[in-house]
Amino acid sequence: MTLPPGLPAHAREVPLDRAYRLLNHGPTVLVGAHHAGQTNAMAAAWACALDFMPPKLTVVLDKATRTRALIEAGEADGHARFTVALPCVAQASLVTALGTTSAVEVPDKMARVQRDAGLRWRPVPGTDGLPLIEGCVAWMVCRVLPQPAVQQAHDLFLAEIEQAWADERVFHGGRWHFETADPALRTLHHVAGGHYYAIGEPVVSPEQGTRA
Ligand SMILES: Cc1cc2nc3c(=O)[nH]c(=O)nc-3n(C[C@H](O)[C@H](O)[C@H](O)COP(=O)(O)O)c2cc1C
């Protein structure tokens, strides 16, 4: 299987019926969008799995964000997609940079964050700018399931996960295995400001064992 450019050699496709597990543990994510020649990305802590199959997720996107504006512009054109990437401990500064700089005020945000915090991304194949952000441990391509009233009232976007990949060093057999991998590959969980926790140690209930 050919991986999209920008994903590392150790990325593997995640079966869609296991995609919800990428979000089960509540990681902070990076949401990427593209419209009419502009690519952007922002941090989002309020992302959540919503359904098993087809897999769905929700994410809260404030009205003030450029990322949301790009997604909504795509909705108006009838093809609203966005990417969701799961950054890891090694990328904490990148997450803070994407979450504290807005392309509304800084039109060259992506170039600035590339220069200052090491942002690297490649377009999803077949698009000219929907970003797959390098160095993350999982990536999803999502199609907006339009809910105009919910989006307007709650800033909440529902989407179907159409494609998913994960770094096999930490996600294999349909689940995460952070405890046996490099701690720098652990996902981030936002507390406040630039303060995060890395995902912690496993707790396995004896009743369930290690059942997949
Ligand atoms: C760790 C972190 C988590 C965040 N989570 C969210 C979120 O869930 N929803 C949201 O609308 N903004 C969230 N933000 C704020 C946006 O990332 C921020 O407003 C960003 O500058 C928007 O960028 P843009 O205007 O270029 O799209 C978060 C910021 C940080 C640092």
SSE layout:
Elements: E1 11-13, E2 29-35, E3 38-44, E4 47-51, E5 56-60, H1 66-77, E6 81-86, H2 92-100, H3 109-117, E7 121-123, E8 131-133, E9 138-144, H4 148-154, E10 156-167, E11 171-172, E12 175-176, E13 188-192, E14 195-198
Antiparallel strand pairs: 1-10, 2-3, 2-6, 4-5, 5-10, 6-9, 7-8, 9-10, 11-12, 13-14
Helix pairs in contact: 2-3
The structure holds flavin mononucleotide.
**CATH classification, class level:** Mainly Beta
The CATH homologous superfamily corresponds to: Electron Transport, Fmn-binding Protein, Chain A
Strand element count: 14
Our count of helices gives: 4
Please give the radius of gyration in angstroms. 16 Å
How far apart, in Å, are the first and last alpha carbons?
24 Å
**Rounded mean pLDDT score:** 95
Report the sheet-strand fraction.
Answer: 25-35%
List the ions, cofactors and other small molecules found in this model. Answer: flavin mononucleotide
Helicity range of the residues?
10-25%
